[in-house]
């Protein structure tokens, strides 16, 4: 359950001697506080109490026993990624990885993590001076997207994405074969095994930190999202300067955020033979969400992100692209057989799986769809307010090739 977060007056935050207490972190971002039985807070009865966090944020304290309370952690204090400086060189052995744990203080019991530390093989370099640094790269977390990947890679490579970083969330399809085939065709695609559930934010943090020397800008997208500018529609062929044209911004702009347009099944009951850009042409009228192309040198040291955008270093700002300048076509509501696969799991930490009866009003859910993977009546015609063929027409012109008998196929088709 999400609670409103209140900021306490400064006078209430100046605690001279905090109460002695123990706390336990529970699932679903809750904390259990255990107070001494004789404390005034434990004896407060029905008084309205709040948990006060180190940032000054609060959340309601709900009784959980005679001297214990349960609080939800405000979003401002939730962390799944922690960043540490390098350990002292004298403590390192280049041959043996070092396990990394967390602790609240030097003598406290360690909290295990999935991280290990290895001595860098080469010293860190200044990213601005790194040779061969790509202007634009793309990063995504994937799960069973092998049949969608060739279209997404071919399209974005055509408009200027030089490298692709895939964080594999435990795929069970032919992802490896698809990546190998793309490599043989000249595309620069690498994968990193990232099996932990609900860790998309952590994966994106890692992607931003690990690839700073390789890329100037990173587009953080899903495989069903395609960046497009209406200004490209009249071009006879794609150009590798296209993505860069969206990033011709002032030096203090640290990320360009682009609004999403959500497309529906467009009458399809199976995956379109020519690909999502060719088959899904009817969308919702209202813009939903956004995605960002991030200048990696501008990312805050904390690496905090919400999937849609990153926190930036001081001195940098976000620029919003107007829909007439750039858009993300999000092929979200696909043919039912494809869409229902999303019920298995969502990869973002803060997005409930659709099979859970939580956050039923969230914009991440399909309107009118409950928590069961049962096809709604009329699904194929849903989410269709505007007939929009802009990307279909451009990509057909750019990526179609003539086949036998005059039939056309797309370059990403096997």
Automatic annotation (TrEMBL):
Compartments (UniProt record): Membrane
Keyword Disulfide bond part of the UniProt annotation: no
Enzyme Commission code(s) on record: 2.4.1.-
GO MF term list: glycosyltransferase activity
GO CC list: cytoplasm; membrane
Superkingdom, taxonomy of origin: Eukaryota
Bilayer topology term: Single-pass membrane protein
Ubl conjugation as UniProt keyword: no
InterPro entries found in the cross-reference section: Glyco_transf_92, Nucleotide-diphossugar_trans
EC main group: transferase
Keywords, in A-Z order: Glycosyltransferase, Membrane, Transferase, Transmembrane, Transmembrane helix
Primary localization class, coarse: membrane
Similarity comment: family membership: Belongs to the glycosyltransferase 92 family.
Protein name: Glycosyltransferase family 92 protein
Annotated organism of origin: Musa troglodytarum (fe'i banana)
């Amino acid at each position: 359950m999400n609670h409103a977060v209140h900021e306490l007056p400064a006078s209430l935050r100046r605690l001279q001697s905090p109460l002695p207490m123990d706390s336990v972190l529970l699932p679903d971002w809750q904390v259990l506080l255990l107070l001494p039985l004789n404390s005034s807070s434990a004896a407060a009865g029905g008084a309205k109490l709040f948990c006060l966090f180190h940032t000054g944020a609060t959340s309601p304290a709900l009784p959980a026993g005679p001297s214990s309370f349960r609080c939800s952690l405000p979003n401002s204090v939730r962390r799944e990624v922690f960043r540490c400086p390098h350990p002292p060189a004298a403590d390192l052995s280049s041959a043996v990885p070092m396990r990394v744990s967390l602790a609240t203080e030097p003598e406290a019991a360690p909290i295990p993590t999935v991280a290990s530390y290895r001595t860098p093989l080469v010293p860190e370099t200044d990213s601005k001076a790194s040779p061969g640094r790509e202007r634009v790269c793309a990063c995504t977390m994937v799960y069973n997207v092998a049949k969608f990947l060739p279209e997404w890679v071919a399209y974005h490579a055509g408009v200027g994405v030089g490298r692709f970083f895939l964080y594999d969330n435990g795929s069970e399809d032919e992802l490896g074969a698809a990546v190998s085939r793309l490599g043989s065709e000249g595309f620069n695609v690498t994968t990193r095994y990232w099996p932990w559930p609900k860790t998309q934010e952590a994966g994106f943090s890692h992607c931003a930190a690990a690839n700073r020397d390789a890329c100037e800008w990173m587009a953080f997208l899903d495989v069903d999202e395609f960046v497009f500018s209406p200004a490209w529609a009249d071009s006879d062929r794609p150009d590798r300067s296209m993505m860069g044209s969206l990033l011709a911004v002032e030096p203090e702009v640290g990320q360009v955020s682009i609004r999403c347009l959500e497309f529906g099944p467009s009458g399809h009951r199976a995956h379109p033979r020519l690909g999502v850009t060719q088959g899904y042409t009817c969308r919702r009228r209202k813009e939903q969400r956004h995605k960002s192309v991030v200048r990696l040198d501008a990312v805050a040291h904390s690496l905090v992100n919400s999937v849609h955008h990153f926190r930036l270093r001081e001195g940098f700002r976000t620029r919003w692209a107007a829909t007439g300048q750039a858009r993300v076509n999000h092929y979200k509501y696909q043919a039912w057989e494809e869409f229902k696969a999303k019920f298995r799991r969502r990869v973002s930490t803060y997005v409930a799986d659709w099979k859970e009866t939580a956050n039923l009003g969230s914009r991440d859910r399909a309107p009118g769809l409950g928590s069961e993977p049962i096809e709604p009546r009329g699904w194929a015609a849903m989410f269709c307010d505007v007939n929009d063929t802009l990307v279909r027409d451009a990509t057909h012109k750019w990526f179609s090739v003539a086949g036998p008998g005059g039939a056309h196929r797309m370059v990403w088709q096997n």
